TrEMBL record:
Keywords: Signal. This is PQQ-binding-like beta-propeller repeat protein. InterPro entries: PQQ_b-propeller_rpt, PQQ_rpt_dom, Quinoprotein_ADH-like_sf, WD40/YVTN_repeat-like_dom_sf. Pfam families: PQQ_2. PANTHER family: CELL SURFACE PROTEIN, OUTER MEMBRANE PROTEIN ASSEMBLY FACTOR BAMB. Residues 1-25 form the signal peptide. Residues 136-373, 405-464 form the Pyrrolo-quinoline quinone repeat domain. The keyword Transferase does not apply. It comes from the Bacteria. The keyword Signal applies. The lineage of its organism: Bacteria, Pseudomonadati, Pseudomonadota, Alphaproteobacteria, Caulobacterales. It comes from Asticcacaulis aquaticus.
Length: 465
């Protein structure tokens, strides 16, 4: 194995944020700094109430030049499968799915989120079966049309030190289902039967889903190390060590394959193009900035998956940089001050992104100039009366957090922490319609066939037809 080294439901807490916690103690937006207690370091806590990082120093506004201008969105097309957490090899722009926008069926995937477990894995599908990973490393496979369970496999090793482990994800390739988990385990299963073909134990927990490229399955650990194992037998391939950064969002983005590269996001704010065969860095970009007024900008994490479309990489960091780069060279084409923990979505001329401040924006994919910005919590009170202020003070209201978007059948779709799936107009950002999922949702929907699928925080797989 070769080794390469470089420069060395609630918001994630940092060491710096802990120092300042007393100053934020009266604010409802900072809570549960260490919800997983014992084994989970305090620098890594669950997702939750969103805090603006860039709003203090920079204000993103729509472009005057683009005001009122229309833009091109391609017609809806079917999506046959969703083999990786990051989606199909060809970026989905506009999916022909969920035309009726109603729940078709709902199935339990196992253990939901709690004080010791977290449902974080994006489902994957080969077009026939859809695979889920629950809060305790149990895999289930369901028929995409009926929801009938095909098989289940428990990958929880029952190790005492890892009893609070969580996270990980899945990837499909060559009839195999590759699984990573917070239990420091990597496994290859037969996708049709669930039979375990090989397992490997690594030294540190794995939060992100794996990806596949060439002969390797590739994934990152919580110490910002990218690891490649041979798909056939799990034999060591290569490793790459990025800057170790303890301050991170709980949700971790998977690497994305592109031609002979692996586009790898890290909690340090680094986005690195690695040679898929050797793990050697080809290019590096840093999507990070620090503000003078907000300590939480020190969370530089790129926790929303990078998007590759039209030979460009689009990615956003928690510290307030949303950028477009050439996928082959890494050369930056544009950047705007927008902070996000979600993945962008490109469709024709436009790229959509939902921000930490619960705003949904549409920008020109070529220039980054903004067409419009919509408040996802429009009409809701941002503050409530404080009892302890004897009616004179105000405290922040508890507002939903949002995940997405996905463009399907003319709707720009988001899910939120109050269990809503909401459709917005992709041309204007206006709210169109909504439906109840029944549980909070923090994982973005995927598209398979004519349906959307979303995993809820309580451990249910919901199909939307």
């Amino acid at each position: 194995m070769t080794h390469t080294t470089t420069m060395g439901r609630r918001i994630a807490a940092t060491a710096l944020a802990l120092v300042m916690a007393a100053g934020f103690a009266g604010c409802s937006t900072v809570q549960k700094l260490n919800p997983l207690k014992k084994d989970e370091p305090v620098e890594s806590a669950a997702q939750g109430e969103r805090i603006s990082i860039v709003a203090f120093e920079q204000k993103l506004t729509p472009s005057e030049r683009l005001k009122g201008q229309d833009f091109y969105i391609p017609s809806a097309q079917p999506v046959a499968d969703w083999p990786l957490a990051t989606g199909p090899a060809q970026a989905v722009e506009h999916a022909a799915a969920a035309a009726q926008f109603k729940v078709a069926w709902s199935k339990s995937i196992g253990t939901g989120s709690s004080t010791t477990t977290q449902v974080m894995a994006t489902p994957v599908s080969d077009g026939k079966l859809i695979y889920t990973l629950d809060g305790e490393a149990r895999i289930r496979a369901f028929d995409v049309n009926t929801g009938a369970e095909a098989w289940t496999r428990n990958l929880n090793p029952g190790i005492r030190r890892d009893k609070d482990a969580f996270g990980g994800g899945m990837a499909l390739s060559g009839g195999k289902l590759f699984v990573t988990s917070g239990f420091r385990l990597v496994a290859a299963l037969d996708a049709a039967t669930g039979e375990v073909q090989w397992t490997k134990t690594v030294e540190t927990p794995l939060r992100a889903a794996p990806t596949v490229s060439g002969k390797f399955v590739v994934f990152s650990d919580v110490d910002n190390q990218m690891i490649a194992l041979n798909q056939a037998d799990g034999a060591p391939g290569w490793t790459y060590q990025a800057i170790v950064e303890p301050a991170r969002i709980l949700r971790t983005a998977a690497p994305v394959p592109y031609e002979n590269l692996i586009i790898a996001p890290f909690s340090s704010g680094e986005l690195i193009g690695l040679d898929a065969a050797s793990g050697q860095p080809v290019w590096t970009q840093v999507l990070a900035q620090s503000t003078r007024t907000n300590a939480l900008s020190e969370i530089r994490d790129i926790s929303g998956r990078p998007l590759i479309a039209n030979n460009m990489v689009f990615a956003a960091s928690h510290s307030g940089v949303f950028a477009a780069m050439d996928a082959k060279s890494g050369q930056r084409r544009w950047s705007v001050p927008a902070d996000s923990t979600n993945a962008p979505w490109v469709a024709g001329d436009v790229i959509y992104l939902s921000t930490v401040q619960s705003e949904l924006m549409a920008a020109n994919a070529t220039s980054g100039q903004v067409y419009w910005i919509a408040d996802l919590n429009k009409g809701r009170k941002k503050t409530t009366s404080s009892f302890f202020a004897m009616g004179e003070g105000k405290k922040p209201a508890k507002l939903p957090t949002w995940t997405g978007p996905v463009l399907a059948s003319g709707r720009l779709i988001m899910v939120n922490s109050e269990g809503d799936m909401v459709a917005f107009d992709p041309k204007t950002g206006e709210r169109k319609e909504s439906l109840k999922l029944g549980d909070p949702a923090y994982v973005a929907p995927i598209v398979v066939g004519d349906q959307l699928f979303v995993v809820t925080d309580k451990g249910r797989l919901v199909a939307i037809q």
